[in-house]
Specification:
- It contains eleven helices and ten strands.
- The chain is an alpha/beta fold and 303 residues long.
- Strands 1-2-5-6-7-8-9-10 form an eight-stranded mixed beta sheet, with helices on both faces. Strands 3-4 form a two-stranded parallel sheet.
- The longest helix has 14 residues.
- It is globular, with a radius of gyration of 18 Å.
- The relative contact order is 0.14.
- The protein binds iron/sulfur cluster.
- Iron/sulfur cluster binds next to helix 2 and helix 3.
Length: 303
């Protein structure tokens, strides 16, 4: 019989989830660049708790292919509905914004575009190439949808040579049909395996606190390691609105550390596991880590 987490409380946010709301002038500069170039960020669309901190450090995660997703996952704050037409100028605008922000490491994600005949892969590749051309020193991380695990679509993106290619498994297998829309746990694993088999750095992330058990998290880590993922992130699920999936529990920082140790035992090159970790939080450290082959990194919040 699997164990459940140490319960904290499901209603009152614990101390360790209190977030920094202070922002400085660099926050305003990032906001202006994003607005001026009519771009979307998952920082805003996803109501990320780290926005003040990341934007003040001049990092942001761009969201391409519009801000309307064709799926409707129960944990996600991104708008859902009829998606917008492809914006041909988007690759250049993303590239220009990254240059203006002076990013050393750029993270790009997208909504899921089940309506497009290539899942959005061609636009994805155009964005990566435009960013590379305008920012030759910047490393590029892409966080892609599952693309229905179609190798020919995934390859279109991989041929643009992002430095890290991620796809989030999001949750354990049992909860996937309940909280993810249309997505399947096994399809995500096939997508990740394909990325790794092409010799790319594969990354994935999951949220905890949705009602999964400890054993289920460990099994998910086993599955991610088995398909060749090198980087994994684990963070606390926070309910964006009352209409979203409820938080089942707040996982303690000690338990996050325990998960980190279990993940490192499974051979991941880099593991970020802490309450406020999101897949793009301090993402540049993961790349540095993979390249240098270090075993530990001590960033903010005990990463
Ligand atoms: S963690 Fe990622 S999504 Fe959240 S604010 Fe930072 S860059 Fe944006």
């Amino acid at each position: 019989m699997p164990k459940v987490y140490d319960k904290v409380t499901s209603d009152i946010k614990p101390e360790w989830l209190k977030i920094r709301l202070h922002s400085d002038e660099r926050f305003g500069e990032v906001a202006k660049i994003v607005e001026k170039h009519a771009l979307h960020t998952i920082c805003s669309s996803g109501m990320c708790p780290n926005k003040a901190e990341c934007w003040s450090r001049r990092t942001a995660t761009f969201m391409i292919l519009g801000d309307i997703c064709t799926r409707g996952c129960k944990f996600c704050a991104t708008k859902t509905g009829k998606a917008l037409p492809i914006d041909k100028d988007e690759p250049q605008r993303v590239a220009d914004s990254i240059r203006l922000m002076g990013l050393k490491h750029a993270v790009i994600t997208s909504v899921t575009r089940d309506d497009l005949p290539d899942g959005g892969a061609v636009q994805w590749a155009a964005v990566v190439r435009a960013v590379r051309q305008a920012n030759p020193e910047t490393t590029i991380e892409v966080l892609i949808p599952d693309l229905d695990a179609r190798p020919e679509w995934i390859d279109i993106i991989l041929e643009a040579h992002p430095d890290i290619t991620g796809h989030n498994i999001e949750t354990v297998e049992r909860l996937t049909p309940e909280v993810r829309s249309r997505a399947q746990y096994r399809t995500s694993l096939v997508t990740l395996r394909h990325i790794a088999e092409r010799g790319m750095i594969a990354k994935s992330g999951l949220m905890v606190g949705l009602g999964e058990t400890e054993e289920e998290v460990l099994r998910t880590l086993d599955d991610l390691a088995e398909v060749g993922c090198k980087i994994v992130t684990i963070g606390q699920y926070l309910r964006p609105t009352q209409q979203h999936w409820p938080v089942a529990e707040y996982v303690t920082p000690g338990k996050f550390n325990w998960y980190k140790e279990r993940a490192l035992e499974r051979g991941f090159a880099y593991v970020a596991s802490a309450p406020l970790v999101r897949s793009s939080y301090l993402a540049e450290q993961a790349l540095e880590y993979c390249r240098k082959g270090k075993e530990k990194i001590h960033g903010e919040r005990g990463l």
